[in-house]
Design a protein that fits this description.
The protein has a single domain, classed as 3-Layer(aba) Sandwich (Rossmann fold), CATH 3.40.50.300. The protein contains seven helices and ten strands. Strands 6-7-8-3-9-10 form a six-stranded mixed β-sheet, sandwiched between helices. A four-stranded antiparallel β-sheet has the order 2-1-4-5, with helices on one face. Helix 3 crosses helix 4.
């Protein structure tokens, strides 16, 4: 589903974020991505939804294959990037919720701007998704009225509202206490069990130790090691 072919990324000033990354992630996988701050994890994730691109002077390439649609970092247009992102859900550490919108409105927003669904269909889909992540009872609350764990559940619901092929989670539990972090991880496992691939960057070893999922370790822009 995802292929990195000789991908390198150097930022202004000569800072090497990625160095000759070769990687394949298949349909329905759950993959952990770990490494110290600055190891290149976020840059690698941003390559997948094409917010960053491999160095132009190299032969690096990112290929995304969702079965009926294919995306190539060397050829992709702005319109195709938007189409790609509609097939990917993204969850960040800092939630990125709109403070003046209710829980239900935050989750519905992407459907309102990018789908042809009726208001009734959108409402039904929003309520089902909020129920799936255990936050339905807070549908009329504002983000400021929620705990950190509740806000992250809303962010997950927003990411999943399109039923994406892939969920990218970049340090999604970094601001949560252990109990809420564990619950968020269980939600990701449930999402993965339904068929959605999950790539989760984390510093928390309690998640990736003693699990059956693939574990990629990065160091200074290099994919240093892979644990199966």
């Amino acid at each position: 589903m995802i292929s990195f072919l000789h991908v390198s990324k150097t930022y202004d000033g000569g800072n090497v974020a990625l160095s000759n990354i070769n990687l394949k992630i298949t349909k329905g996988e759950f993959v952990f991505l770990t490494g110290a701050s600055g190891a290149g994890k976020t840059t690698l994730l941003r390559m997948i939804y094409m917010d960053e691109f491999p160095d132009r002077e190299g032969n690096g390439q990112v290929l995304i294959d969702f079965g009926t649609e294919h995306f190539d970092s060397k050829k992709i247009s702005l319109g195709r990037i938007q189409a790609l992102r509609r097939k990917i859900g993204i969850v960040f550490q800092d939630f990125k919720l709109l403070g003046d919108r209710t829980v239900a409105e935050n989750v519905a927003l992407s459907l309102l701007v990018s789908s042809n669904l009726s208001q009734a269909e959108i409402k039904k889909q929003v309520l089902e998704t909020l129920s799936a992540v255990g936050i339905l009872q807070k549908k009329n609350s504002l983000p400021a009225e929620l705990s950190g764990g509740e806000q992250q559940r809303v962010a997950i619901a927003r990411a999943m509202i399109h039923s994406p092929y892939l969920l990218i989670a970049d340090e999604p539990t970094g601001n949560l206490d252990p109990e809420n972090a564990s619950e968020v991880f269980r939600i990701f496992q449930k999402i993965n069990a339904s068929g959605t691939a999950v790539i989760m960057a984390t510093h928390n070893p309690t998640f990736y130790q003693n699990t059956p999922y693939r574990h990629l370790i990065m160091k200074q822009g290099i994919l240093q090691r892979e644990i199966l």
